[in-house]
């Protein structure tokens, strides 16, 4: 059968499963990476049980083989709500002030990483290539190694990686972050994230990094930046046809000629939604001529609701939006439409296409909303992207209106400029960014990462097997040619 690609992540996006929430960036990207490849996607089923966790369940949907495990209430509390989302997430997003560490959560995190390793261990063949995703499973590589697996194992961090001073605020950071050194390749979204982690390792004095590579305990480990992307062409097609969606038509009609500014984010403090809303308020404050002529639609499905900090951001936002609507709205116009629900990919693509401006103002690993918005535009009459300098996407999408989301006046000015931008300038900004997205799509991301992962592995047998896996003829020599 040859080597398989084994994807491991906490969240698994099984199509049509009632337990799959609105697909976040990681899930969408991974699904695209796995398509048409011989492999398996291993992770949490989305089910929370009272009893001790049972055997993994296998299910095949649309040619993807999923193997899913349930988690107990205690696991969710300590590992997912606890260390992953109350400690690692805020720290990785530079929000040391929000972290809430407890020893019980840390040992829950380690227990669940061990449990993933136990279950996966039983399914692994020696020549399988394993690709682990995100901050929930930093210790999985170490756990697999300690069970004797010598497979090629890679890790990709979908979030930002904060600088060493911030990473060191994590209690027992050496144990958790040091776990990443058991992988063969540690992938980041941007050069900045990769360099932050390299500096962190350097401050620990444990390894000597040269050309992004170091040796530790007989393992060769590489660090690299691989900006995640979208299925650009498929998304363009989806958006072209999405205008037919009844809901999109209804939204357009209900705007009655008012211009549409769109925000789409999970309800998360890392997304900069209050900053965005304040900038919209400043636009209205400074420009009475825009009253009644522009609407901000903020689509914000709730997420991680059992984590305290998420309840706080929710209250802050509802208060702020209520205040702005009360202050500027009238019987015939609501300045901000705020909805806590998710929409299908088709409806979202249609909303992106209908929007004159998208506001993307987070601190984010990448932010695929920014990329999807651009791909969804009509190239003849494109909308304008206002993008935070702190989103990974800003490195590539440099013809967007790049803003510091904390500078309310500057974001309000960028928003006004976006709303009033002449067609020629909109086209001139949009075209090179679309071209970039066509070239650097999700397929390229997966290929670049996997080529680097496998290229660092000298076994000829494995390379030949991987080439076969990706349908590359055996006459091709270089492992980097895995297209
Ligand atoms: O890395 C962050 C991430 O995995 C995103 O890709 C995704 O949008 C989000 O987290 C999903 O979060 P959760 O699994 O907690 O719903």
Account of the 3D structure:
The structure is a single chain. The protein is 43% helix and 18% strand. The chain has 483 residues and is α/β, with parallel strands linked by helices. Mean pLDDT is 91; it is low at 462-483. Helix 9 (246-255) runs parallel beside helix 12 and helix 12 (345-354) packs across helix 13. It has a 9-stranded mixed sheet, sandwiched between helices. A 6-stranded parallel sheet has the order 12-11-10-13-14-15, sandwiched between helices. The longest helix has 21 residues, at 308-328. The two termini are 20 Å apart. Bound molecules: 6-O-phosphono-beta-D-fructofuranose. 6-O-phosphono-beta-D-fructofuranose binds at residues 11, 21, 24-26, 134, 158-159, 266, 303-304, 365.
Keywords for this entry:
483 residues; alpha/beta; six-stranded parallel sheet; 15 strands; globular; disordered C terminus; binds 6-O-phosphono-beta-D-fructofuranose
Helix-strand makeup class: alpha/beta
Bound molecules: 6-O-phosphono-beta-D-fructofuranose
Whole-number average pLDDT? 91
Residue fraction in strands? 15-25%
Helix content: 40-55%
Query: Main sheet: which strands, in order across?
Result: 3-4-2-1-5-6-7-9-8
Shape, per Cα inertia axes = globular
- Total number of beta strands: 15
Task: Identify low-pLDDT runs.
Answer: 462-483
The termini sit apart by 20 Å
Number of helices: 17
Compute the CA-based radius of gyration. 23 Å
